[in-house]
């Protein structure tokens, strides 16, 4: 029989968010916690994404924890291997290994209103926790579109986030589906080795030059000997991006100059006017994430590459068919089609106070107070929750802000004492969400003329933060108890009603 374990805090996931939460818990003096990870190692998206050319599009010194600076980043934009090694180093340095429960996929978690704790079932045992911190991340579960005939394809099929390293693409005819951040790294990495590469492009991205270089030995020596120099470097990188935010969130017209530079970047590498027209977006730059690459356009201009505008329509045997009718026989199909972002896969597994799943509660769109807490789910919070994403800076900045909020949340529970919980008021969530969505209307992500993965099925941007990272840090510095209801454990008077009866009573009370 699987062992049951009770902890003060259960953290779900061991990427940047989960490891950051674990480190912060220890720094707050909390050691009674576990990190539940479905895989056999830490790293999150930087473990899962190991495709050729995988690297970060945020400078290394900004894409790392402020409390764990790395003076030895090898490049200004580091690759997947070095970022994953950094996360392993964080787990070791801050003593997180004893708290890890690897190969523990969360199958279900349900709020117990009598005990004021979460009941958690995993693939390797059961747990209960006073507080759950969900750090599963928005880029964790790949999305493959429903393509007619795909099941009948006899060649190799995989997603960029589940790269099959045992399959050799050399000399193969390959279809690459998608033109997002992964695809623009994969294409130039595999183009020299494949016999034929057919890129299916629904919408062309805006691509700017990638100002990447090796960080010299003297620079690394200086950062090791004088850590203040690395902090200064990080501060400059942060400040530059903070100054850019207004163009994205308030004055999209100011992005016109950047758009001209992006068009010049296309013209520099692509001489064929027909191909250049295919690769030139018709929407305002910034509406989708601006991508960085020096090799993408040159790769597309090579004779063994075809670009099919309009995307993949269907598969007929081993023939892939574009929406323009183009037919191409291929040996492998690689999907770079993103992730389940606005429909979090863990959401159906989280059951709140009224027996309603998080997926049901968010059926009309994700909403969480300060990107952290959801109405109906006491003592549950998420890292990188709704409207915490960024279009131009480092998500580590947002994660650290949410860790501040998490720490104060736990302090407030300690002050309350006894068996208690904090349940965010629906009115507070609604007020926060209205403010965010009102600000969103002026942003390039809403007014830029594109359809992006930032938007949910209702056309609302429930992923990005419409402000600076400094502003978000101020908004999450501490918990405002007026936005929460304090829940105390019920006194054992008489028989305890069954869960269904309790839920019915609460619904009746809410309707009155």
Summarize the structure.
By secondary structure, the protein is of the alpha/beta class.
| Domains, number | 2
Main β-sheet: number of strands, strand sense, barrel status?
8 strands, mixed
Tell me the CATH architecture of the largest domain. Answer: 3-Layer(bba) Sandwich
The gyration radius over C-alpha positions equals 24 Å
Q: Name the poorly predicted regions.
A: 493-498
CATH-defined topology of the largest domain:
FAD/NAD(P)-binding domain
Helical proportion, percent range:
25-40%
Strand content: 15-25%
Total number of helices: 15
Distance between the termini: 45 Å
Number of strands: 20
- For this entry, what is the oligomeric state of its chains? single chain
State mean pLDDT (0 to 100 scale): 94
Please tell me what the overall shape is.
globular
Structural class: alpha/beta
Q: Output the CATH homologous superfamily of the largest domain.
A: FAD/NAD(P)-binding domain
CATH top-level class of the largest domain: Alpha Beta
Family: Belongs to the FAD-binding monooxygenase family.
Region (Disordered): 490-512
InterPro entries: FAD-bind_Monooxygenase_sf, FAD/NAD-bd_sf, Flavin_mOase-like
Organism: Streptomyces hydrogenans
């Amino acid at each position: 029989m699987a062992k049951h374990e009770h902890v003060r805090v259960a953290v779900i996931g061991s990427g940047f968010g989960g490891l950051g939460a674990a480190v912060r818990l220890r720094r707050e003096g909390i050691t009674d916690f576990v990190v539940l990870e479905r895989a056999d190692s830490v790293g999150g998206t930087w473990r899962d994404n190991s495709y050729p050319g995988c690297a970060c599009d945020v400078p290394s010194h900004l894409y790392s924890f402020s409390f764990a600076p790395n003076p030895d980043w090898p490049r200004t934009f580091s690759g997947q291997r070095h970022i994953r090694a950094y996360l392993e180093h964080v787990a070791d340095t801050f003593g997180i290994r004893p708290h890890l429960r690897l190969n523990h996929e969360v199958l279900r978690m349900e709020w117990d209103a009598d005990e004021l704790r979460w009941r958690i079932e995993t693939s390797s045992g059961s747990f209960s926790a006073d507080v759950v911190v969900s750090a599963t991340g928005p880029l964790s579960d790949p999305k493959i579109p429903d393509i007619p005939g795909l099941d009948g394809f006899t060649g190799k099929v995989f997603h960029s986030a589940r790269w099959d390293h045992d399959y050799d693409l050399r000399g193969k005819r390959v279809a690459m589906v998608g033109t997002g951040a992964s695809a623009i790294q994969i294409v130039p990495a595999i183009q020299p080795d494949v016999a034929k590469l057919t890129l299916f492009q629904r919408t062309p991205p805006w691509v700017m030059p990638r100002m990447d270089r090796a960080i010299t030995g003297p620079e690394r020596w200086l950062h090791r000997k004088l850590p203040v120099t690395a902090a200064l470097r990080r501060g400059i990188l942060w400040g530059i991006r903070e100054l850019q935010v207004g163009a994205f969130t308030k004055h999209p017209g100011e992005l016109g100059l950047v758009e001209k530079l992006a068009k010049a970047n296309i013209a520099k590498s692509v001489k064929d006017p027909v191909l250049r027209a295919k690769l030139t977006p018709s929407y305002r730059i910034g509406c989708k994430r601006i991508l960085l690459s020096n090799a993408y356009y040159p790769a597309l201009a090579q004779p063994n590459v075809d670009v099919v505008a309009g995307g993949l329509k269907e598969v007929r045997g081993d023939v892939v068919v574009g929406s323009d009718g183009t037919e191409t026989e291929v040996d492998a199909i690689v999907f770079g089609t993103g992730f389940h972002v606005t429909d979090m896969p863990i959401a159906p597994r989280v059951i709140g106070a009224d027996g309603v799943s998080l997926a049901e509660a968010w059926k009309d769109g994700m909403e969480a107070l300060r990107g952290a807490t959801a109405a109906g789910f006491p003592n549950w919070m998420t890292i990188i929750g709704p409207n915490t994403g960024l279009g131009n800076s480092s998500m580590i900045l947002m994660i650290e802000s949410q860790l501040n909020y998490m720490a104060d949340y736990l302090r407030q529970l300690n002050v309350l004492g006894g068996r208690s919980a904090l349940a965010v008021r629906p009115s507070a969530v609604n007020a926060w969400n209205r403010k965010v969505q009102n600000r969103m209307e002026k942003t390039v992500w809403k007014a830029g003329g594109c359809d992006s993965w930032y938007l949910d099925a209702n056309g609302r941007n429930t992923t990005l933060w419409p402000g600076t990272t400094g502003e978000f840090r101020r908004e999450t510095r501490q918990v405002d108890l007026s936005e929460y209801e304090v829940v105390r454990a019920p006194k054992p008077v008489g028989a305890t009603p069954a869960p269904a009866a309790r839920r019915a009573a609460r619904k009746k009370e809410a309707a009155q």
